[in-house]
């Protein structure tokens, strides 16, 4: 279906790809893996036709439809969720308009016996057949099913897309791509903004899809459940196996061992042959044998061992000072933003040495409770931090909070004290910052590099209670494994907010589920919790089929009473909504400007004459970093806007 032939991509004398070739065939489900910076996103852009390679080509039939989901995008703000998603069916909607127009023309004409009239009848018949063939009769049901699968509720369908945070807007774009049913899906980190339930729904959808899938993901469980082929990019080359990620790792290891054994045997043969030639070089009686063996060496096809990219994190958290038995004790804890109740009457205890996970749908209060525990937010009820508990916090936006004007070395030197200051370069080296990397400014670092730098800062703090909010975002597979191992060996207490099942598996022994403003404890690992959840979902379906009766009326009345706001409160909410809408508009204007500049830079970078101009590349990296920062600000503004709109119930 798609042929990639001798692809080369070069930046400033550095070859990202060194002549890679492979085929994408129908029903391939390819997991594209590799280290941060290996070129996964670049390869997807080239396949999608949004970037040109330095050399080589990508060939695909003209009728092949591609659905591409990049990591970052901006949606229209003028439509509702349902209207925006309907764009996936533009062909159906255009067909319907044409059929209606032709039917109107047929109804107003009276030349029933003419050739023109019969041509109209035939044309309408053809279009109707096409309309039903491509799903014109049930596309709205497909929209509803897909949006609900991705976590939207029916009441969300009529809300403006501008009311949603960046993560939810990304889901709308994903829904549009899924509904278009392209021949090939190109998905770049599709699970980054999804909760566990939505990830499982997407897994089921892609696993049963009839087309091809090429996806980039750092979620090992997601890759294993969806893919049947793995392509790893490493040091400019690719390794291609017809297996999912876990099986690929086994096969790659076996191949490496076989390759090394063959290499050693050949080296032994070469050494023995060279010794024979050297020993009998000047003996006339052995001249024929020496000549024969010399020719054999010349003809020998030398085995080369694949070079490995062994750069990886080397994390080990320092020993934790001993705390009291109870680390966190919450009783009757509630949290509201104005009239919006997020957490209601929470009871929770975390003890010394516990490793627990906070899971649940986005917006259910996981990060809110983590920030309450850190004493960053006001609340009602009781929350006690135990004796001698020292908290270290890694936030979702921790990487964005770093001072962009400092270098990597300066960032760590700022907080290092005592003997640690003499080991800063060693510590940075353990986190893959070596040589000239330590002099890079933070503003030019990739998302993964910033995350690693923020993790170093956390490790240098003398703490015994780690609170980590989505710590694996932007980390590649090997880095995640090293972080997981370091946390497993850590003798302090750990609280992780995450949707990454593979990362949580074997790490946590207790899961707290956030749902409907409540928190429910599940003892056991993450997969024990997921097995229980599927059983509970079946029970919930049975309960939904039962009439609600008087209880429903009471609940409806209680909600109505709770939603009554005073005139002053409504006035203040409207004022804040207007303020945020202006801020969102300004952010979107800036995002548009930065994206235009980056697009112009992409065209410049395609010029071979600029390959040696480092200032161009520095400007390009700065623009990307600025865009990431504005996108984070825009997402926060939208989340605040969404929370206020939920209060606006009059």
TrEMBL record:
Q: Where is the signal peptide?
A: none
Q: Which UniProt keywords apply?
A: ATP-binding, Coiled coil, Nucleotide-binding, Repeat
Domain ABC transporter stretches: 2-260, 328-541
Residue runs in coiled coils: 570-647
Source superkingdom? Bacteria
PROSITE patterns assigned: ABC_TRANSPORTER_1, ABC_TRANSPORTER_2
Which Pfam families does the record associate with it? ABC_tran, ABC_tran_Xtn
Q: Which GO terms describe its molecular function?
A: ATP binding; ATP hydrolysis activity
Looking up SMART domains in the UniProt record yields: AAA
Identify the CDD domains for this entry: ABCF_EF-3
Q: Which family does it belong to?
A: Belongs to the ABC transporter superfamily. ABCF family. YbiT subfamily.
UniProt protein name: Probable ATP-binding protein YbiT
Species this protein is from: Gaoshiqia sediminis
């Amino acid at each position: 279906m798609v042929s990639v032939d001798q692809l080369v991509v070069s930046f400033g004398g550095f070859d990202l790809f060194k002549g890679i070739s492979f085929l994408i065939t129908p029903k391939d489900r390819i997991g594209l893996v590799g280290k941060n910076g290996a070129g996964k996103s670049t390869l997807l852009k080239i396949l999608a036709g949004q970037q040109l390679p330095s050399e080589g080509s990508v060939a695909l039939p003209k009728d092949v439809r591609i659905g591409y989901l990049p990591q970052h995008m901006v949606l229209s703000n003028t439509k509702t969720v349902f209207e925006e998603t309907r764009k996936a069916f533009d062909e159906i909607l255009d067909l319907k308009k044409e059929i209606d127009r032709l039917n109107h023309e047929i109804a107003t004409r009276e030349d029933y016996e003419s050739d023109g009239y019969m041509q109209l009848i035939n044309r309408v018949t053809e279009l109707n057949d096409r309309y039903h063939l491509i799903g014109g009769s049930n596309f709205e049901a497909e929209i509803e099913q897909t949006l609900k699968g991705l976590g939207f509720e029916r009441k969300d369908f009529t809300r403006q897309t501008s009311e949603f945070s960046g993560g939810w807007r990304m889901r709308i774009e994903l829904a549009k791509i899924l509904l278009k049913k392209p021949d090939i899906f190109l998905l770049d980190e599709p699970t980054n903004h999804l909760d566990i339930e939505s990830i499982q729904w997407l897994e089921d959808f892609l696993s049963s899809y009839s087309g091809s899938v090429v996806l980039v993901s750092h979620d090992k469980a997601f890759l294993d459940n969806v893919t049947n082929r793995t392509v790893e990019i490493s040091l400019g080359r690719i390794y291609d196996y017809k297996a999912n990620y876990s099986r690929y790792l086994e096969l790659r290891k076996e191949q490496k061992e076989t390759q090394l054994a063959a290499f050693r045997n050949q080296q032994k043969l070469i050494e023995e042959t060279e010794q024979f030639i050297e020993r009998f070089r000047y003996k006339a009686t052995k001249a024929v044998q020496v000549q024969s063996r010399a020719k054999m060496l010349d003809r020998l096809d030398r085995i080369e061992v694949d070079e490995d990219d062994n750069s990886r994190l080397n994390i080990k958290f320092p020993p934790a000072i001993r705390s009291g038995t109870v680390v966190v004790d919450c009783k009757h804890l509630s949290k509201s933003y104005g009239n919006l109740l997020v957490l209601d009457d929470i009871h929770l205890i975390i003890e010394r040495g516990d490793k627990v996970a906070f899971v649940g749908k986005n917006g259910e209060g996981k990060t809110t409770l983590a920030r309450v525990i850190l004493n960053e937010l006001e609340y009602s009820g009781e929350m006690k931090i135990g004796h001698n508990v020292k908290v270290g916090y890694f936030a979702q936006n921790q990487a964005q909070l770093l001072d962009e004007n400092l270098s990597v070395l300066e960032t760590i030197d700022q907080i290092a004290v005592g003997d640690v200051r003499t080991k800063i370069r060693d510590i940075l080296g353990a986190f893959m910052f070596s040589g000239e990397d330590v002099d890079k400014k933070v503003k030019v670092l990739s998302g993964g590099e910033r995350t690693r730098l923020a993790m170093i800062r956390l490790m240098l703090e003398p703490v015994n209670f780690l609170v980590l909010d989505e710590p694996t975002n932007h980390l590649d597979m090997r880095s995640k494994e090293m972080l997981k191992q370091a946390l497993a060996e850590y003798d302090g207490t750990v609280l992780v907010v995450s949707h990454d099942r593979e990362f949580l598996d074997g790490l946590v022994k207790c899961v707290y589920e956030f749902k409907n403003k409540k928190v429910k404890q599940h003892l056991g690992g993450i997969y024990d919790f997921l097995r229980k959840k599927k059983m509970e979902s079946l029970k919930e379906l049975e309960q939904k089929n039962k009439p609600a009766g008087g209880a429903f009326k009471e609940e409806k009345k209680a909600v109505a009473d709770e939603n009554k706001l005073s005139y002053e409160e409504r006035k203040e909410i409207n004022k804040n909504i207007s303020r945020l809408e202006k801020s969102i508009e300004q952010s979107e204007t800036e995002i548009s400007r930065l994206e235009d500049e980056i697009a112009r830079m992409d065209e410049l970078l395609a010029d071979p004459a600029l390959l040696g101009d480092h200032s161009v590349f520095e400007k390009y990296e700065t623009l990307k970093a600025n865009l990431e920062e504005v996108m984070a600000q825009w997402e926060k503004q939208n989340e605040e806007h969404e929370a206020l709109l939920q209060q606006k119930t009059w």
